[in-house]
Amino acid sequence: DTAVSQTPKYLVTQMGNDKSIKCEQNLGHDTMYWYKQDSKKFLKIMFSYNNKELIINETVPNRFSPKSPDKAHLNLHINSLELGDSAVYFCASSRQTGEGIQYFGAGTRLSVL
Amino acid sequence: QKEVEQDPGPLSVPEGAIVSLNCTYSNSAFQYFMWYRQYSRKGPELLMYTYSSGNKEDGRFTAQVDKSSKYISLFIRDSQPSDSATYLCAMSSPTGANSKLTFGKGITLSVRP
User: What's the pLDDT tens digit per position in A54-64?
Assistant: First the structure.
């Protein structure tokens, strides 16, 4: 049973489209995150949510809007996709905010054409 | 200067070699130090977790933290082809509302049979 699962695994889309990525964790953790990993493997935090409340928004463009319907789910909606949005997006969770022990999903590989 | 600098790669070693992976950092508030391992097309997984200065050993892996020099290392003894992956160092300050993980750029290790 996968601890942190995200869908879809692959997303290929045209510039200007809107897309969503979903994430669910079954670990009972309070905090969830979205990270972006670029082509050079650099992993950078985008958002963190604690018990459905936005905690960290790391200067991400307004086109990115996270939503947490409950503490086990954190979705990411991206409007007006741009070429530079192509990356791997990882969802992660931890027991509490900022904890070093985080569990990552397998990633969503987004390609914007 | 970036907050976390990691030795650039890639790194290729023969099976059985001792591998040393290193990161330096500039933020003296960092107290928690992690090494994550990421296999190709997978999410990062926590490999080692240390608090403050000192050494921690787990099987063939040893993590070292030298806070006075702002330097952390991961040693892999008797390296195996299954150790081939990208290794990311990560750090955080004490947990709190805005605490987050800051990652190094990652180094890709290849262990040749």
Answer: 988 887 899 99
